[in-house]
Amino acid sequence: MFDSKTLTSFLIKSSLSKYSNMKIGGNATYLLAPQTVSDLSYIVKEARTQNLEIVPVGGGSNILFGNVGNRVIILDAYLPEIFQVDHKIVIVSSNMKISSFIDKTMQHGLGGLEFISGIPAHIGGAIHMNAGAFEKCIFDYLLWIEYVDMKGNIEMIKHEDLDFGYRTTSINGYIMRAAFNLEKKSKKEILADKEDIISKRFERHPYNYPSLGSTFKNPKSKFAGQLIEECGLKGLQIGGAQISEKHANFIINVGNATFNDVFELIKIAQKTVKKQKGIELELEIKVIN
Ligand SMILES: Cc1cc2nc3c(=O)[nH]c(=O)nc-3n(C[C@H](O)[C@H](O)[C@H](O)COP(=O)(O)OP(=O)(O)OC[C@H]3O[C@@H](n4cnc5c(N)ncnc54)[C@H](O)[C@@H]3O)c2cc1C
What we know:
Uridine Diphospho-n-acetylenolpyruvylglucosamine Reductase, domain 2; 3 domains; 4-stranded antiparallel beta sheet; Uridine Diphospho-n-acetylenolpyruvylglucosamine Reductase, domain 1
């Protein structure tokens, strides 16, 4: 059955800018949207045969697209959406938005992930990045994941068998489903916590412009934003990209920013912080170039 398929059977004709929260990106040779798990498995196997790198894309809230070359960009938009609840355990597909997940689990009197309310991510991307905030991370609630490994096989792995840390995990493959062990919590409490987190985010972060959240990881016992600010780089603009005046670890697209505009700001921030503070800033965002 696979014989009649090729990678191009799953092509989407669209600009990558539509799939990055930074609204930057051109055309890709392989921008693919599988509709089933067997499509996904086929794509991963075929990419491996052709020696092409795969790039899963969820909410695109942490991905900066440059020249993606022949990379196989895989969107989750047409994969089936799964949401199953059994007591405190929720099984969910990777393509569900964080906001929908929090709202749906709230209807079952289950909470826990409110701390990532307001981030425009999907479950799969949030797991891959071990998204976190306010001293909590998504791995605190994760039980297991099901994923397509780099050979195209479907595998399941438990939380205890995964390595993870600050915005990093050992997952190498395409996450399809995950199970979470949530907390019993009233709807009223969940709503209040969610609103509190979202209002804190709007207060601190430049939500009125496209961005990818924190550009750099915080170095040990320091804040990347504070270091950049102390180097006098707040508000620095190149083309349509700017180091946000509101939060210096955010680079925002103030209008028609290009990949090069953003990349130039990244290099300036790294170089200046290294020179003035002696600290290497490590990227948190994923640059696909
Ligand atoms: C305004 C704003 C606020 C933010 N605040 C926070 C915050 O408080 N805390 C935080 O941790 N992050 C934050 N972020 C960053 C971002 O939301 C997180 O990194 C999030 O986890 C990315 O999820 P995503 O679905 O958008 O992933 P994407 O950006 O689509 O992808 C990110 C990485 O995950 C991989 N990936 C995506 N889907 C899958 C999958 N199904 N299987 C395997 N790999 C996959 C991608 O290949 C890429 O390497 C913020 C971003 C924005 C724009």
